[in-house]
Specification:
763 residues, mainly alpha, Na+/H+ antiporter like fold, Alpha-Beta Plaits, 4 domains, 4-stranded antiparallel beta sheet, 8 strands, 6% strand, globular
Length: 763
């Protein structure tokens, strides 16, 4: 194993240096290194212990997904809105269909087609980010849209892996089985997130002074592998468990430290994973399947150009941004390899498909920069051939839609007022308000009820699986059942109470009971009936949970169990102690969930930059170059707003942050400026910033210390050092005069050069 690691790591290091010289992605370098070290390359030393390398590569997948989870935030996704979510879902569904169709054309099996569709649906975040960086497009507005969709694709890719795993195990495509798998997934995901967000931040907070960087690395990796183990026990992939733990830790204050500490470990094991991918490349397979490879490449390029563009337009982008975004995603990368490895591991995907996908990834990676550059010519061509009215709609539909809605609303109100139908307007507005309040109330109650039901079911399951056998062994069967039942009821009581009582006295409920206005008695009555029905439904849910415990542990007739369950729930609702514990649990969870934002605000850390609502405006971060001519100048001297049409909204200097700086704020080299502007102004400002730097002389980096003897005819003889202007005219400094005993007399401005002096100069 040591020999194999030495071989693949040295090869990976050498090959990636070569790839960096040619400005190619490191992932491709690792794949080439794997091919060179693999069994299909006879002219190079070959890896002997393939099983060990595969084990290490699986660990690499775990660390890659763990790091991806650390960069993910549920709250960040919610802030994105529906646009990126719609685009990501549409692109993935379309590309899965494209992959399945191509597989069907070549007569491949159903599972091969499903996994192929999943691989084609996942564009490469690493490759696209690198391409944007190389082409200088990372500050563009469409680039931000693409990166948002890529993050969502990674998240949906996790769900896709779970669905594919469930299909691989059952070998069926039945809707009921798939729905049950998704419900089970949602249950486990919610349980892990709720418990993790309650326990882990508390542990970090109470032990922060004892957790060094080393301890943090060990503990976070341990948590990662713990959830990997639990995911495997539950029948899901290890990658899913690693991602979930990363996403849980991403909501903690220590997320940034964990991400930095795990980076080197992730890079090492990730490199081994990509090298193992390259080891599976078989030239004979590529020759045999050259036609499917070319067809898949064409399918990705054309599919993303067409379906990707359409998806971005549907999500709210104009035609130019949609084309640029869609053309940018015409490749597959690291996530496709992970899905392929899953298919091979489950034994449901033919091995020939792995090298085929690797070859497709390599070709599409090289094509990516050219596809990005082709977006503008494609837009210009479409602009010429399409009718002007249609182009106008696509280019300005957001603004036009908003204006049309506002105009219609104004016309409606003007007509109503002109007809003196004020009472009708009041009734309509009250009804609309009533519906809005109901929607808000139902959303809150359903989300909270689901969370507490999940905790209740999990607590009952753990109790019956762990506590019940112990109680029966210690206290015999029926006494053990009684003790276990009492302990279980005590444990779930803080979860049962909020199922029934939460939001019963909220502002929404008070508004609905008032009917919205004194005149709307009929609405008030309907609201009251619906509120009673809602409370009875929640009460029945709590009774059902208690009934299940009684029915499982007690031998009595089921009606007695129903009656006892109702009594127990009423006692729980009346208990002040249970109420106190329940409120404390919920407050702790909410505190942990928002602790990262509050901590960032308190310490003035750099927050996640939000794009403005304007059609073209967005926020971008730029770093002042080290030799910038702007260093040490105030904002009012530089006049950025007047000269560059941008606004400086923040200056970040290390951990120090200046929000909304005024004209007296000074900027320095290496400062991070957060600016607001459109694509054109930001691009011009960035170009100006990079150009206005002090050009360093080559001589400044090539100083020499020399020893020189003054001759009789030297023009400096008889002059004072201060009058010689040797510093300005020759760019030299006199260090001193060497004495006869070899010591050096440090020079001063009044010293007069004499013939025979031995002078030490630097220049």
């Amino acid at each position: 194993m040591i020999n194999d690691l030495a071989l693949i790591l040295v090869l990976a290091g050498v090959v990636t240096v070569i790839f960096k010289r040619f400005r190619q992605p490191l992932v491709l370098g690792y794949i080439v290194a794997g091919f060179l070290a693999g069994p299909h390359m006879p002219y190079m030393p070959t890896v002997t212990d393939v099983e060990s390398v595969e084990t290490w590569s699986q660990i690499g997948v775990i660390f890659i997904m763990f790091s991806l989870g650390l960069e993910f935030s549920f709250k960040k996704i919610l802030k994105m809105g529906w646009g990126p979510i719609l685009a990501a879902v549409c692109i993935m569904l379309c590309m899965i269909s494209v992959g399945s169709t191509v597989g069907l054309m070549f007569g491949w099996s159903g599972m091969n087609r499903m996994f192929l569709g999943g691989m084609l649906a996942m564009s490469s975040t690493t490759i696209i980010y690198k391409a944007f960086d190389d082409l200088g497009l990372r500050k563009k507005k469409f680039a931000n849209n693409v990166m948002s969709v890529l993050i969502l694709e990674d998240i949906l890719g996790i769900l896709l892996m779970v669905v594919l795993s469930a299909m691989a195990v059952s070998r069926e495509f039945e809707g009921v089985a798939l729905a049950m798998s998704l419900i089970k997934l949602a249950f486990i995901l919610s349980l892990w997130f709720i418990v993790g967000m309650f326990v882990i931040p508390i542990f970090f907070k109470r032990n922060s002074k004892f957790i060094s960087s080393e301890t943090l690395l060990v503990f976070s990796v341990g948590l990662c592998f713990l959830l990997v183990m639990l995911a495997s026990k539950a029948g899901y992939s290890e990658a899913f468990g690693a991602f979930m733990m990363g996403s849980i830790l991403a909501e903690t204050v220590e997320a940034e430290r964990i991400e930095k500490s795990i980076l080197s470990v992730k890079d090492l094991f990730g490199a081994i994973f990509f090298v193992s991918v390259g080891m599976l490349v078989n030239p004979s397979v590529l020759v045999q399947y050259w036609l499917p490879i070319l067809v898949l490449v064409a399918s990705i390029v054309v599919g993303q150009a067409v379906f990707g563009t359409m998806s971005y337009i549907l999500s709210g982008q104009d035609l130019r941004d949609g084309i640029q975004s869609g053309f940018s995603m015409a490749q597959i990368g690291e996530f496709a390899f992970i899905i392929a490895a899953l298919g091979i591991k489950l034994g449901v995907m033919d091995e020939f498909l792995y090298p085929v996908v690797v070859a497709v990834s390599i070709i599409t990676t090289f094509i990516t920069p050219y596809m990005i550059k082709a977006a503008d010519p494609a837009y210009n061509f479409i602009e010429k051939v399409m009718p002007g009215s249609f182009m106008s709609v696509l280019s300005n539909r957001n603004a036009r839609g908003e204006s049309a809605q506002l105009s219609a609303l104004r016309r409606k109100h003007v007509v109503a007022l002109n007809n003196s139908q004020v009472s009708i307007i009041v009734d309509q507005l009250s009804s609309l308000r009533n519906i809005t309040v109901w929607k808000s109330l139902i959303t809150q109650i359903v989300s909270q009820t689901i969370a507490y039901v999940i905790l209740t079911i999990a607590a009952i399951g753990v109790s019956f699986a762990s506590v019940l056998p112990v109680c029966r062994n210690v206290f015999t069967h029926w006494p053990g059942n009684i003790i276990c039942g009492v302990l279980t009821l005590l444990f779930i009581s803080p979860f049962l109470r909020p199922i029934v009582m939460r939001k019963n006295h909220s502002p929404e409920v008070l508004y609905l009971r008032s009917g919205g206005s004194p005149e709307m008695h009929r609405v008030k009555l309907i609201n009251e009936v619906l509120l009673i029905f809602l409370k009875l439904a929640r009460f029945s849910l709590a009774v059902w949970a208690v009934y299940y415990i009684f029915n499982f542990l007690s031998p009595y007739w089921w009606p007695w169990h129903v009656l006892a369950s109702i009594v127990v729930v009423l006692v729980i609702l009346r208990s002040r102690r249970v109420k106190y514990v329940s409120i404390r649990i919920e407050r702790t969870f909410r505190h942990n969930l928002t602790r990262k934002e509050r901590w960032a605000e308190k310490n003035d850390k750099t927050a996640y930059a939000r794009r403005l609502r304007g059609r073209d405006l967005h926020i971008i971060s730029l770093t002042i170059p080290e030799r910038s001519k702007w260093g040490g100048k105030k904002l009012k001297e530089l006049q950025f707003g007047r000269n560059d049409n941008i606004i400086i909204v923040a200056i970040v200097r290390g951990e120090y942050r200046i929000n909304t700086p005024d004209g007296n704020s000074t900027i320095y080299p290496r400062d991070i400026l957060e600016i607001v502007g459109d694509d054109a102004s930001i691009e011009d400002f960035s170009a100006r910033m990079e150009s206005e730097v002090e050009v360093s002389s080559g001589k400044a980096r090539d100083l020499h210390l020399i020893r020189m003897k003054m001759e009789d005819d030297d023009p400096l003889v008889g002059k004072r050092i201060g009058d010689s202007d040797i510093r300005k005219q020759r760019n030299c400094i006199v260090i001193g005069i060497e004495m006869s005993d070899g010591t050096l007399s440090i020079s001063n401005a009044d010293y007069v050069f004499c013939a025979g002096d031995i002078v030490w100069l630097v220049g």
